[in-house]
Write a structure and sequence with these properties.
about 210 residues, mainly alpha
Length: about 210
């Protein structure tokens, strides 16, 4: 009986090989032959999974986006009792890829972002990856604003002022701003303009100002 091939697992295996090569040499250094060698599969196996190099890169970018999204969801599930504001900080930290263990992933992500500027297929995939992250930010900001407004209503004049400020927060606009900020922080850390602690300080200061 012929051996059954798990194409989903093989495509993910190949995507991981692409990530390793992109981290080492950039996307221009990713060839089908090198991907096959790194994934320890034949050239034919790579070509059966992906008809073109672009198709392989599009899948890989989506794979990275899914991995980041899963990590964000797992972080939120681990602490279900936390406030929406705290959850927002955790989610933003995960997406910013500032920790040392995520540095390689950050380099690969930004390599794809740069290529997406001149490749519509990658740009479409990138937008699809950003969409659920922005929705997560929007939901958490709305929940945090509601909580802030509710707590302020029982805290006297100062609390009323805080509630008024929270009521003025536009969750969708703030989510777009935050997503752009975390992407920018990733870049600044990778090129050495900011250290990870400095980037974290910028992120935390921005989050604190949402309700100040």
């Amino acid at each position: 009986m012929p051996k059954q091939v798990d194409h989903v697992s093989r495509r993910r295996l190949i995507a991981e090989a692409v990530c390793h090569l992109a981290d080492e040499h950039g996307l221009e250094g990713v060839t089908l032959r090198d991907v096959a060698a790194r994934a320890q599969v034949s050239m034919g196996a790579v070509q059966r999974c992906f008809r073109t190099k672009e198709e392989m890169l599009v899948f890989t970018l989506g794979h990275i986006g899914e991995r980041i999204g899963e990590r964000v969801r797992a972080r939120l599930v681990r602490s279900p009792a936390q406030s929406a504001g705290t959850a927002l900080g955790h989610a933003a930290t995960e997406i910013s890829l500032l920790r040392e263990e995520h540095r390689a992933e950050a380099r690969v992500w930004l390599a794809f972002v740069a290529q997406a500027a001149v490749n519509e297929a990658l740009a479409t995939t990138l937008r699809a990856s950003y969409a659920p992250l922005q929705e997560t930010f929007t939901r958490l900001i709305a929940e945090a604003a509601d909580a802030e407004a509710g707590s302020g209503s029982d805290a006297g004049a100062d609390g009323d002022a805080g509630a008024d400020r929270a009521a003025l927060v536009d969750p969708r606009r703030e989510a777009r701003t935050l997503l752009a900020l975390v992407d920018g922080l990733t870049t600044h850390v990778l090129i050495g303009h900011l250290t990870p602690p400095e980037a974290q300080d910028v992120l935390h200061a921005h989050l604190a100002r949402l309700w100040a």
